[in-house]
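Marked as duplicate of an earlier ticket. Keeping the data here for the record.
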Amino acid sequence: MSYTPRLKKDYKERVISELKKQFSYKSVMQVPKIIKIVVSKGVGAAVADKKLVEHAIDELTLITGQKAIATLSKKDIASFKLRKGMPIGAKVTLRGAKMYEFLDRLITAALPRVRDFQGLKVSGFDGRGNYTLGVSEQIIFPEIDIDKVNKISGMDITIVTSSQTDQEAKSLLKEIGLPFKNKEINLKEDQVNSFDKKNMIIDKLESSDKVPSEEAPSEEVPSEEVPSEEAPSEEVSSEEAPSEEVPSEEVPSEEVPSEEVPSKENLDISKK
């Protein structure tokens, strides 16, 4: 008896029938399936140190169980000191039994070890039935020995399916066991309802503000009726309490001059 991976067996026995009921497929050949899984890893620092690409190839080989290959640059980029044909990453393409085994290890062993994991995002679909997820640390895979890790780095995992739409691909991957976030749709519906309620309240407040602003205009209680001129500063002006009535000229120093009194006495004395 030949070995059959657990997910492949589950796909044939349960997933196909579930998808046929959900999408009303008439033939088994219409049911979408996983074609391949591509695990890729970019190494930008490999321009200066080519040994980093070798480390990336070794890590992907340990994780997937299949020999990885180096990816080469397709064009020259002078600003990055990159030439065409230089190794800048590593990748491996999985099909058949190794594909299902890697997906099984990813679901059961790797993803639960992600820190604060709350589920996979639905935004990873490309519109043609393919799904891509990013892994920020390679140490979530149990095959990697953390003591032998040269540098913490991530990778991209692309799952290519035969489905034509994202909805079919999501149903397929969800039935196989990928943990997607279920709260996103509910949260969006709640947010829409809350936004509608807020808009209704704002409209009511705006309509209530428009009525009293016109009924009690600012012109009916004018500032001109109690003007600053009626309580006049001119009636009690500085001219009515004049400083000119007691001028300095009315009590002059000339009326009692020092010359008028002594001048007569001096004349009498001079006559004698």
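See parent ticket for discussion. Residues 6-188 form a domain with the 50s Ribosomal Protein L5; Chain: A, fold (CATH 3.30.1440.10).
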